[in-house]
Amino acid sequence: MRRLLPAAAVVAALALAASACGGGNAAGPTATVSDPSKVSGEITWWDTTRPDSEGPTFQALIKAFEAKYPQVKVKYVNVPSDQAQGQFQTAAQAGAGAPDVIRSEVAWTSQFASLGYLQPLDGTRAVDNEADFLPGPLSSTKYNGKTYAVPQVTDTLALLYNKRLLKEAGHEEAPKTIAELKQTALDVKAKTGAEGLALNVDSYFLLPFIYGEGGDLLDVANKKIVVNSPANVRAVQTVADLISSGAAPKPATTESYANAMTALKEGKAAMIYNGPWSLSEIYQGKEFKDRTNLGIAPVPAGSVKAGAPTGGWNLAIYAGSKNIPAAYEFVRFMTTVEAQAKIAKEISLLPTRTSAYADPDVKGNSDVVVFKPIMDTAVPRPWIPEGGQLFQPLLEGYQSLVGGKSAPADMLKKVDEQYHGIMKDWS
């Protein structure tokens, strides 16, 4: 669900940044209003949530916003998360069709800002009490010392599991290490007939294995590409071993996210890696009509540590928007403690505000309570313009590995070559 543009397409977009015609006056004066409730106009918001399980909560928030701001109309457009990045870039570059507000994945924000597509937000009404935001999510909104978005929700990955199946396989607790994960998965398969672990062939979901072996994609401080490292080879070999051993069935290279989710919901697989955004959908599955049957635990540790990536979504304003004052008010409203508490209560997405975790609606959601300490130990990703481009080569490599077309070392060598094509001045 975190698909990004192919590297070549993004590089082309970066090359066009200087001549971008859709950027408007990105560094223009800050709009102010004496009475925010009198702001008027129409704004378009591109939302990237799943329309069935998450969309209703956000549409309810829009209605609440429009009730508070009766002179502002919000046009809600749901854009699939794997298409939004490319569609926004195309529209912003063309100067036509871009939304006033976009729900931007954390890895996209600095890229869009570097291209001049986002309105700077420092000192505007869009940013309310910046000190209240968690440092990790807040850092993803910055580029060259300026603020270009407001954190809406944050996330990371955890091990989600069917307690019943693990218990039938003789395991009362979730596995804490990769070795335990493999054995638990094999026990589930042998004793219950269900698959042990359903893998999602996606770059973001490969990162816990990489971090677990002490690896990473980049060494930002030293401007080095480190994807082709011994640690990462071990990580990829671990994934390959899970498949070859039967602990995880060989996943399809496409639709693997949907396949893994379906397998968990229907009791055909006992464990998956996934984040808080998936919970509202999982609870619709027959295995989790009794919500207490779902277990949530930190991702199992590799030989070095347990580590999952920092993810999440920001709200950003298109620099070419014709209704920036209304967009400021919308972003401010959608990132309040009250809005974040409603989102956490109804669909278990993690707030980005520190004070939100003291809200009764947030404290009352046991899933959020469990995910919060996991989130606190999440591994930061590099918030650089090229950061979002790193996923596509890694995805292609992961697909090649699963498809039997490359071994771990060969896979990472090719990814390394592609990274050097993206990060041309890095060693």
UniProtKB/TrEMBL annotation:
<protein>
    <submittedName>
        <fullName>Arabinogalactan oligomer/maltooligosaccharide transport system substrate-binding protein</fullName>
    </submittedName>
</protein>
<dbReference type="InterPro" id="IPR006059">
    <property type="entry name" value="SBP"/>
</dbReference>
<comment type="similarity">
    <text>Belongs to the bacterial solute-binding protein 1 family.</text>
</comment>
<dbReference type="GO" id="GO:0042956">
    <property type="term" value="P:maltodextrin transmembrane transport"/>
</dbReference>
<dbReference type="GO" id="GO:1901982">
    <property type="term" value="F:maltose binding"/>
</dbReference>
<keyword id="KW-0732">Signal</keyword>
<keyword id="KW-0813">Transport</keyword>
<dbReference type="GO" id="GO:0015768">
    <property type="term" value="P:maltose transport"/>
</dbReference>
<feature type="signal peptide">
    <location>
        <begin position="1"/>
        <end position="26"/>
    </location>
</feature>
<dbReference type="GO" id="GO:0055052">
    <property type="term" value="C:ATP-binding cassette (ABC) transporter complex, substrate-binding subunit-containing"/>
</dbReference>
<dbReference type="Pfam" id="PF01547">
    <property type="entry name" value="SBP_bac_1"/>
</dbReference>
